[in-house]
Amino acid sequence: MKKALVFVTAALAASLSACATMRERVASKEDMLAAAGFTVLPANTPSREAALHRLPANHFVTRTRGGEVEYVYADPVVCNCLYVGRQSAYGAYQSMLFQQHLADEQEMTAEMYQSPWSWDGWSWDAWGPGWWW
Fold this sequence. Notes:
The chain is an alpha+beta fold. The protein has a domain at 33-114. Helices cover 53% and strands 18% of the residues. The chain is built from 3 helices and 4 strands, in the order H-E-H-E-E-E-H. It has a 4-stranded antiparallel beta sheet, with helices on both faces. Strand 3 and strand 4 form a beta hairpin. The termini are far apart.
């Protein structure tokens, strides 16, 4: 009984932290959308609110208006709004995502090389001094 309680408590804590992490990820994504040039349109009327909930949450959809493609991102939870942008804003957002991904990989690599237990005692010494330059 005691083990089951510990397991349930741990599972609950993990799920709550996952929810916070998801919310933080959505908020971070939305910060990048705004920085990339997307326009924020609040769902501040009943008709806008209804229209917002007809779109897939936290995903891009495209529409063509006036011969131009627009990218629409609906967030019914964090900001209760739409982010709308043209190809230039979407391209800037994709570039920001790529830069963020690259920075995350560099950080992970740096942490891996600094972490003494991640290599299980493996060492560059066997390759000789200065092999990389």
